[in-house]
């Protein structure tokens, strides 16, 4: 698991920087608006599974816009391969409304940085988002791992999930 997030950090940070330099500001300003609206929605009462699916669809569209803005087919290919694994991890961790709310705010900041052509902020906002994502996974994943029968555990009690 550690390796997945290390690679994700490198690739997505580079992609957000390139998108800030090469992307169309108006496209990412619109994503900032969408993520801000989602942040407000996710702060409300319980969110339905359909709304969660819609939110993840927005993230996919954002990722596709970042991919296009990088204008780097090698980076896009690597990120697409990585996203298959990230989606699996996301399913394993489940979702919490508070994490989704924070994610929407983090994505809004990344989109804002890209729309303002601030590559440094895009990089740092991406790192913060990925850090929070991996921490959520670690906290979500460990209880289920701890409860697994001894022969089915993939880590020891003191080991970090990989």
Automatic annotation (TrEMBL):
Top-level division of the source organism's lineage: Bacteria
Positions in coiled-coil regions: none
Name of the protein in its database record: GntR C-terminal domain-containing protein
Entries under Gene3D superfamilies matching the protein: GntR ligand-binding domain-like
Lineage: Bacteria, Bacillati, Actinomycetota, Actinomycetes, Kitasatosporales
Compositionally biased intervals (Polar residues): 152-162
SMART domains in the record: FCD
Domain GntR C-terminal: 3-132
Presence of the UniProt keyword Transcription in the record: yes
Positions of the UniProt region annotated as Disordered: 139-162
């Amino acid at each position: 698991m550690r390796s997945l997030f290390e690679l994700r950090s490198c690739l997505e940070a580079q992609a957000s920087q390139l998108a800030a330099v090469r992307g169309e500001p108006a496209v990412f300003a619109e994503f900032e608006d969408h993520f801000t609206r989602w942040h407000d929605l996710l702060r409300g009462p319980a969110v339905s599974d359909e709304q969660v699916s819609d939110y993840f669809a927005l993230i996919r569209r954002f990722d596709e816009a970042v991919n296009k803005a990088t204008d780097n087919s090698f980076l896009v290919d690597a990120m697409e391969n990585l996203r298959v694994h990230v989606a699996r991890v996301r399913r394993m961790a489940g979702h919490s409304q508070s994490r989704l709310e924070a994610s929407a705010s983090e994505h809004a900041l990344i989109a804002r940085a890209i729309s303002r052509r601030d590559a440094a902020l895009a990089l740092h906002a991406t790192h913060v988002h990925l850090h929070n994502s991996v921490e959520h996974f670690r906290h979500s994943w460990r209880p289920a791992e701890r409860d697994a029968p001894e022969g089915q555990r993939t880590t020891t009690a003191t080991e970090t999930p990989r």
